[in-house]
Amino acid sequence: MVNFSDILGGGKKKRDSHDDKNNEDDRSISFSSLDEKDLRPAPNSQAEALHKRLISSAEKIFSPKVNITASDFKEISRLISDSADFIRDESQDLLEYVFVSSSGDINRFSLNAVNVCILSLEIALGLDYDTVQLCNLGTAAFFHDAGMRDYFDLFNRSKQLNDKEKQLMRNHPRASSDLLRRIKPDLDPLIFAAIEQEHERLDGSGYPHGLKGEEINEYAQIIGLADVYEALIYRRSEGVTALEAAKSILSNKEAFNLKLIKVFLGKIGLYPKGTFVELNTREVAMVVRQNDNMPSCPLVKVAYDCEGKKIDRQRIIDLGQGTKVYIVKSL
């Protein structure tokens, strides 16, 4: 059972006197100066190729000059199916790309579409979705903001939008659904509904219709949770870590389905696979995988010693096995 009080309190184990002495040591290293490239795992070639294909397709969707055809959708649909199959092997190699802070020249909306699709599929896997459900959800997640291409002029304005313009922007879920409906009108109606409802919240605080509770379909609830989390971790340059993003979700439980939050924590965790953490030993480690029902205690691989030097022979530590080693900071 996930202990939410531990999460909101930081999820750290109780420190003993030896730990306190270590943490007071003024020789503690700042790892903020480490090269971002050094804080990445070796890429999985299949995951890398799949991610590139996802980005390429998303870039096409968010190019106002490109008219998306049924043929384009067929390729995207095949790509989402491939992604669902890849994620289903539970290696989570594709998930690691969600947390790469350097996105180069990739359009922000394209990156968001791919990230939200991956996150949504991971959550759905924890709900035991079948192949059809995974593909339908993935399609809705991939196209959830496609209608924003009609509002780029407003979105890119340097000055603040007035109330009328803000209200106009809130029509983009319907525009996204309409765009996909024009391309492929015979899709499962749940896909269109999910796109239109992904900005709705259980407590009625969302838009465009202010729906509440079970009025919002589950696909939309999953995508909405993934979208908010993705927006938070995208602010990594402002110091928002994956842990802080998860805490933000937890602090707003009225807006999100508690069942989905628990599945999210089980599949993605407080410290997602591929992210890096600082241990109380002042070493830096990469998260290898989650421990079921122990989101604050993943399996980690130590990559840097307490002086910031790369470790040639990296060792694995299971933080859920009663060890005195624990995470003090998400990087």
Unreliable runs: 1-29
Radius of gyration in whole Å, from Cα? 21 Å
Oligomer: single chain
Work out the number of β strands: 5
Strand order of the largest sheet: 4-3-2-1-5
**CATH fold name of the largest domain, please?**
Hypothetical protein af1432
Structural class: alpha+beta
The helix/strand series, from N terminus to C terminus, equals: HHHHHHHHHHHHHEEEEE
What name goes with the CATH superfamily of the largest domain? Hypothetical protein af1432
What kind of sheet is the major sheet?
5 strands, antiparallel
Strand content: 5-15%
Protein architecture, described:
The protein is an alpha+beta fold. The chain has 2 domains: 4-36 and 273-330, no CATH class; 42-240, Orthogonal Bundle (Hypothetical protein af1432), CATH 1.10.3210.10. The chain has helices spanning 4-8, 17-24, 45-61, 70-88, 108-126, 131-142, 152-155, 163-169, 172-183, 189-197, 218-233, 242-250, 258-267; strands at 276-279, 284-289, 299-304, 316-318, 327-330. A hairpin with a 4-residue loop joins strand 1 (276-279) and strand 2 (284-289). It is globular and about 55 Å long.
Quick rundown:
This protein is an alpha+beta fold. 44% of the residues lie in helices and 7% in strands. A hairpin with a 4-residue loop joins strand 1 and strand 2.
Notable traits:
5-stranded antiparallel β-sheet; disordered N terminus; alpha+beta; single chain; globular; 2 domains; 7% strand; 331 residues; Hypothetical protein af1432
